[in-house]
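Before the break, one more example. Copy the sequence into your notebook; we will annotate it together after we see the structure.
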Amino acid sequence: MEMRLTIATLVLMIFQLTDVPAQNTTNNNLFIDVHMLRPGSVTAADVAAAHAKDLAVQAKYGVSFKQYWVDEKNGTVYCLSSAPDSAHIAAAHNEAHGLLPQQVYQVLGGKPAASAPRLPYFIDIHNAGAGNVTATAVASAHEKDIAVQKRYGVHFINYWVCEEKGWVFCLSQANDPERIFNTHKAAHGLLPAVIIPVVQGK
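Here is what the structure looks like once it is written out:
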């Protein structure tokens, strides 16, 4: 009889076989994992319900799910968490609701600012290429963004850098994406590949 395993089942089996205990999340690594669903197939309410299930099992896997953002138009969900490694995140998602991420980035974050009232949220993504960006360089660019943000009506909240893969995720608020683009252009000229409107959850 042919035996077929889903990716979710395989990840869970590997996790169980290694018998990794839950760990204290204080010294864990930081990750952004990305769930790419069908365009228009997910709402912020759907993700809030799935996130509640993640929170219910996170301690079992040594994961701390911190925040998430939903791109309802394109059906993409971005999750920020701390964990020992990406396998623990996958195992927690798998038990909670079975929706595994298609991409996982180990990241370094900046110092977050408080959100501004009544402004829409955006995530803009820069892809510099593997090995072409450092957390130090992004911190410097972020300071330049903050120095000019008021001129363009933008409020930058935080950023996360995956040095290994060369990806940078910036979280900001503005009335439209063009303001974010122009802020980056004026600050340092490093322009994002995409600027995505998102709904923020906790």
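Residues 36 and 76 are 5 Å apart (CA to CA). Residues 1-25 have pLDDT under 50 and may be disordered. Try to locate both features in your own notes.
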